[in-house]
């Protein structure tokens, strides 16, 4: 069992590293991060491959977004700026889509915070922390992509694609190896961490609906929808997996009691 955990941990760590390394090793690329909180504009940083190959520390420093003022008052009338400067109502499909991704990322942070308290108790918690850390980074990138209208997308901008979806599928398959087939529906619960992962799953499903709604109104890549669909499946599997690894009992659905017939 410990050997398999070691393999899982290595895969998770490798996934975090290679995701950054592959971005850095392109000849030229742009990293676009979003922060629509209080209408802060996204920042675009161009970095050459020679600079980024020095070390991950200098790479992170060059990527950093510097925020000196939190409020701008530009959104006080209910509109906000997308990447590229176009202003739209705050309840428009695009804002709803990446706003829900932001909400999801917050809940992933809650699950990660509760899990972090247990890092020294079980290898499973360390594996989960690495996995959730990577998911949070990818969700932030996805929010950036969704905040960028099609006419402002440029070559080299980070976009969710087949590689990220395949990576989620591999994680699902690995964790499933430790789980017994279900013979009943699972109810949200199974310890604090498992419960928060179930909440991640349901908010992720809502994000999927919002992205679908956006795709019907505006031009959008096929991959964000596929990504959040797989991600919700991963949250379900992770909630079951961490509950099993830590000895938490799952809440299984049982058909409700039938109403007793009234006495005549």
Description:
- By secondary structure, the chain is mainly alpha-helical.
- It has one domain: Cobalamin adenosyltransferase-like (Hypothetical Protein Ta1238, Chain: A), CATH 1.20.1200.
- It is 56% helix and 8% strand.
- The protein is built from 8 helices and 6 strands, in the order αββααββαααβααβ.
- Strands 1-2 form a two-stranded antiparallel sheet.
- β3 and β4 form a beta hairpin.
- α1 (2-24) packs parallel to α5 (123-146) and α6 packs parallel to α8.
- The longest helix is centred in the last third of the chain and has 27 residues, at 191-217.
- Residues 10-60 have low confidence and may be disordered.
**Overall pLDDT confidence:** 76
Count of the domains: 1
Please give the oligomerization state of what you see: single chain
Biggest sheet strand order reads 1-2
Structural class: mainly alpha
How far is it from the N-terminal to the C-terminal residue, by CA? Answer: 61 Å
CATH third-level topology: Hypothetical Protein Ta1238, Chain: A
CATH superfamily: Cobalamin adenosyltransferase-like
How many runs of DSSP E, i.e. beta strands? Answer: 6
What is the correct CATH architecture?
Up-down Bundle
SSE sequence, one letter per element: HEEHHEEHHHEHHE
Segments where pLDDT lies below 50 for 5+ residues?
Answer: 10-60
CATH class, named Mainly Alpha
């Amino acid at each position: 069992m410990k050997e398999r955990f070691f393999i899982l941990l290595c895969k998770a760590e490798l996934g975090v590293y290679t995701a950054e390394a592959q971005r850095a090793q392109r000849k030229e690329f742009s990293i676009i991060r979003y922060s629509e909180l209080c209408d802060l504009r996204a920042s675009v940083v161009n970095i050459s491959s020679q600079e980024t190959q020095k070390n991950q520390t200098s790479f992170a420093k060059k990527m950093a977004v510097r925020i000196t003022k939190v409020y701008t008052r530009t959104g006080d009338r209910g509109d906000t700026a997308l990447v590229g400067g176009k202003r739209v109502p705050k309840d428009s499909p695009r804002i709803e889509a990446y706003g829900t991704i932001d909400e999801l990322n917050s809940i992933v942070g809650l699950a990660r915070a509760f899990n972090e308290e247990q890092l020294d108790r079980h290898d499973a918690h360390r594996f989960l922390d690495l996995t959730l850390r990577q998911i949070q980074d990818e969700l932030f990138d996805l929010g950036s992509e969704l905040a960028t209208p099609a006419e402002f997308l440029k070559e080299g901008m980070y976009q969710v694609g087949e590689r990220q979806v395949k990576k989620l599928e591999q994680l699902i398959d690995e964790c499933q190896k430790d789980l017994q087939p279900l013979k009943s529906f699972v109810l949200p619960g199974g310890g604090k961490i498992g419960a928060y992962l179930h909440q991640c799953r349901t908010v992720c499903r809502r994000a999927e609906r919002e992205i679908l709604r956006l795709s019907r109104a505006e031009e959008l890549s096929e991959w964000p929808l596929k990504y959040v669909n797989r991600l919700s499946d991963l949250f379900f599997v992770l909630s079951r997996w961490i509950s099993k690894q830590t000895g938490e009992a799952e809440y299984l659905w049982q058909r409700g009691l039938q109403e007793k017939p009234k006495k005549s």
